[in-house]
């Protein structure tokens, strides 16, 4: 199983979730919301070579944590993975837009200077603006749009810009999400849980729920589930 966007450090008992991932051989991109959380969160991956910890600065708290940008830039040489970063256009976060765009631009610039990174990107109600920022920094690395919810035109533009996509079960349960997933290039898709924020059956989503996402993908793509699981592994290996 592959969970390419999970907030491992935000579960009530992150060590037991990490141990479960290790026991089940789940590949996890453990994203963080602040640069100051990165070092502690990295310890969750010490017992597994399948858990990678991404360095992040979440757009919803960009205004509070912009002072951690120098720390972000210092830590960037220690990891190939960046996330969660991006922009959030919901009304309650829109008021901090200048901070959000400044932080995201600085992060992309730092990634480009560092030779590129694999980035897990939030783009809720801000797909066009995220794509504008990516277009302005083509050397930032490989952008993976997590839980993409833009429109078809934005999807086409993202594909043309070389974006990848990580998709969760909630997305695959909705008509709009299934429509988008059906139009994504199959060799640029990975699964994610977005736990513990996303919900599955009324509880926090777990990394092990990503196999259900793979099965749902198989339905949308009209392929056997095993073929889809193999495709997902090929995709992940391609990123290494
Ligand atoms: Zn997230």
In short:
Helices cover about 45% and strands about 15% of the residues. The protein is built from 12 helices and 10 strands.
Describe the structure.
There is one protein chain. By secondary structure, the chain is α/β, with parallel strands linked by helices. It has one domain (2-239): Metal-dependent hydrolases (TIM Barrel, Alpha-Beta Barrel), CATH 3.20.20.140. 44% of the residues lie in helices and 17% in strands. The protein contains twelve helices and ten strands. The chain has helices spanning 14-23, 38-42, 62-65, 69-75, 91-94, 97-113, 127-136, 152-160, 169-173, 175-182, 210-221, 225-239, and strands at 2-6, 27-30, 51-53, 81-86, 117-122, 141-146, 164-167, 189-191, 199-200, 203-204. The strands form three sheets. The protein has a five-stranded parallel beta sheet. Strands 1-2-3 form a three-stranded parallel beta sheet, with helices on both faces. Strands 9-10 form a two-stranded antiparallel ribbon. Helix 2 links the parallel strand 2 and strand 3 (51-53). It is globular. The mean pLDDT is 97. Zinc ion (ZN) binds next to loops.
């Amino acid at each position: 199983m592959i969970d390419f966007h999970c907030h491992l450090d935000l579960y009530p008992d992150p060590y037991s979730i990490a141990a479960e991932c290790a026991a089940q051989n789940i590949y996890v991109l453990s994203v963080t919301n602040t640069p100051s959380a990165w070092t502690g969160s990295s310890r969750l991956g010490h017992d597994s070579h399948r858990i990678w910890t991404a360095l992040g600065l979440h757009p919803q708290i960009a205004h509070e944590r912009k002072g951690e940008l120098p720390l972000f830039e210092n830590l960037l040489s220690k990891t190939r993975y960046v996330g969660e970063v991006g922009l959030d256009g919901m009304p309650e976060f829109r008021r901090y837009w200048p901070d959000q765009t400044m932080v995201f631009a600085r992060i992309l610039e730092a990634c480009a200077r560092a030779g590129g990174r694999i980035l897990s990107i939030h783009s809720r109600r801000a797909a066009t603006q995220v794509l504008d920022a990516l277009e302005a920094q083509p050397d930032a690395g490989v952008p993976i749009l997590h839980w993409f919810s833009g429109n078809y035109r934005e999807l086409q533009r993202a594909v043309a810009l070389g974006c990848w996509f990580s998709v969760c079960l909630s997305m695959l349960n909705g008509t709009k999400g299934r429509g988008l997933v059906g139009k994504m290039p199959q060799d640029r898709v990975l699964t994610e849980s977005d736990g513990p924020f996303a919900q599955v059956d009324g509880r926090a989503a777990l990394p092990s729920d990503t196999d259900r996402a793979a099965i749902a993908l198989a339905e949308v793509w009209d392929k056997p589930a095993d073929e889809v699981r193999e495709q997902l592994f090929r995709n992940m290996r391609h990123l290494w």
